[in-house]
């Protein structure tokens, strides 16, 4: 049987980086097994539906470099792939479940249900549950209510006292007791199915063989297994994956600690191969020390056996930064330049390099490349290449306290640099002549060059000074010294 996996986003918000991890595992599992990867949009929760979310989710999945064999935008023989376009199918199966005795019509009003809930809460029930009131309606009463067009839902009839066993591909055997499960709604009064019904019907009809999803879906699985059983369908294999948490604790990923949404990571200037590589390791490892994988390498290596049997894995933001920096350093200058420009166009980021040649921008990029951890570090690291710095007085006085010594040094630098032929404005020559000068003046390299660096570049930490002065060019350097003096 051909392996078929799916990712089933709900357009109730933007795509989370954790979704990308789950998608990657489904994608890799299908590709590794020469199977098919499907995208299905689970848009049945109309209250939480967000306009535009479907397109944003599909766009970000594409931006991360994933394609799908069937689904929205590409079609396929099991479509439509939007659940809202499949309503008659769910109604048919909900009614079939009623006929088979595994579901029932419920005409309880909102008021009755909220009273019931309040009463159970008053009595101190640990969880409130539907009381199966409509399970005892006679066939005649049901027919009459339907004829009178009373609003209804269809509820799952969960057996009172059974043990359901799941053989999870990662967690092994997991047992559930049906007494803990409510007779939940399968089909709502507006004709929309709930997730539990739609997911089962679609996974089955779409021939999904493996469901890899976050472990937060584990409690739903017995409800799904009961529906499979009722319809006499073979369920797919389930593999429940660890969820992501912030480092140190059990907190879900939170905006307080940084980006959470997939697109925000791209917007901040993380590179797709670095992000994809990073999420590979959120729940899986190759069994040795290796950490750097291309998507193709990962597909070759990936297996469910190597997924951690745990609820939570830490999303180490520092490690992601490291990995992104590693990918930036590994890129050719040309490729990095192109990536930077593409990124700035896509996200409307002003690099503040207008009026400068590509050659010049590339030279600057080359100098800061090793210090960049994200593309958005570029402007901060290179600001002084494109505009005179605002020099902080106190900082400029930090390394040489005596104003007369400082003034003397700067005017000597000015004289020295004025006399250097433009053709000889190379970093080695600058380095040599500048060192000779400070030796004559009896100053230490650190105090003299830090002062020069601060007044020319505005900061203490920069790439090697003479590389930078060389790139800036004689005229600019002289202007900056002069304007400071
Ligand atoms: N629509 C569900 C979600 O938003 C899919 C859960 C599943 O994979 O079964 O994650």
From TrEMBL:
Gene of this entry: gltX
The keyword DNA repair is annotated on this UniProt entry: no
Name this protein carries in UniProt: Glutamate--tRNA ligase
Keywords of the record: Aminoacyl-tRNA synthetase, ATP-binding, Cytoplasm, Ligase, Nucleotide-binding, Protein biosynthesis
Motif position, 'KMSKS' region: 252-256
Residues that hold ATP according to the record: 255
Domain of life from the UniProt record: Bacteria
NCBIfam families documented for this protein: gltX_bact
Record-linked InterPro entries: aa-tRNA-synth_I_cd-bd (IPR045462), aa-tRNA-synth_I_codon-bd_sub2 (IPR020751), aa_tRNA-synth_I_cd-bd_sf (IPR008925), Glu-tRNA-ligase_bac/mito (IPR004527), Glu/Gln-tRNA-synth (IPR000924), Glu/Gln-tRNA-synth_Ib_cat-dom (IPR020058), GluQ/Sye (IPR049940), GluRS_core (IPR033910)
GO biological process, alphabetically ordered: glutamyl-tRNA aminoacylation
């Amino acid at each position: 049987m051909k392996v078929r996996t799916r990712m089933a986003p709900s357009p109730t918000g933007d795509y989370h980086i954790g979704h990308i991890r789950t998608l990657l595992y489904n994608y890799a599992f299908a590709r590794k097994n020469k199977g098919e990867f499907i995208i299905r949009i689970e848009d049945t929760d109309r209250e939480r539906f967000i306009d535009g979310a479907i397109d944003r989710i599909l766009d970000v999945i594409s931006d991360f470099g994933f394609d799908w064999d069937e689904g929205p935008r590409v079609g396929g023989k099991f479509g439509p792939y939007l659940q809202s376009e499949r309503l008659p199918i769910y109604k048919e199966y909900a009614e079939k479940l009623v006929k088979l005795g595994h579901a029932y019509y419920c005409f309880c009003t909102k008021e009755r249900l909220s009273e019931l809930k309040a009463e159970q809460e008053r009595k101190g029930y640990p969880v409130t549950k539907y009381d199966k009131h409509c399970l005892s309606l006679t066939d005649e009463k049901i027919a009459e209510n339907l004829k009178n067009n009373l609003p209804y839902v269809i509820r799952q009839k969960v057996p009172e006292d059974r043990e359901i066993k799941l053989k999870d591909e990662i967690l092994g055997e997991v047992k559930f007791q049906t007494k803990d499960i409510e007779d939940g709604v399968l089909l709502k009064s507006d004709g929309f199915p709930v997730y539990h019904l739609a997911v089962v019907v679609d996974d089955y009809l779409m021939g999904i063989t493996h469901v890899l999803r976050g472990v937060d879906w584990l409690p739903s699985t017995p409800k799904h297994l009961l529906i499979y059983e009722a319809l006499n369908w073979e369920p797919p294999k389930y593999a429940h994956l660890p969820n992501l948490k912030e480092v140190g604790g059990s907190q879900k990923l939170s905006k307080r600690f940084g980006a959470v949404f997939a697109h925000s990571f791209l917007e901040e200037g993380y590179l797709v191969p670095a992000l994809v590589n990073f999420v590979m390791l959120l729940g899986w490892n190759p069994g040795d020390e290796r950490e750097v994988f291309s998507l193709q390498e990962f597909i070759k290596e990936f297996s469910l056996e190597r997924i951690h049997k745990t609820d939570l894995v830490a999303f180490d933001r520092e490690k992601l930064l490291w990995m992104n920096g590693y990918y930036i350093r590994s890129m050719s200058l040309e490729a990095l330049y192109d990536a930077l420009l593409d990124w700035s166009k896509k996200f409307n980021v002003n690099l503040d390099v207008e009026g400068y040649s590509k050659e010049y921008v590339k030279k600057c990029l080359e100098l800061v490349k090793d210090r960049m951890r994200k593309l958005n570090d570029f402007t901060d690291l290179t600001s002084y290449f494109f505009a005179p710095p605002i020099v902080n007085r106190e900082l400029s006085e930090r390394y040489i306290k005596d104003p007369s010594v400082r003034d003397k040094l700067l005017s000597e630098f000015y004289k020295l640099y004025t006399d250097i032929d433009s053709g000889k404005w190379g970093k080695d020559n600058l380095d040599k002549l500048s060192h000779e000068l400070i030796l004559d003046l009896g100053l230490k390299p650190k105090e003299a060059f830090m002062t020069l660096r601060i007044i020319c570049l505005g900061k203490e930490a920069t790439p090697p000074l003479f590389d930078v002065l060389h790139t800036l060019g004689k005229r600019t350097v002289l202007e900056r010294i002069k304007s400071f003096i």
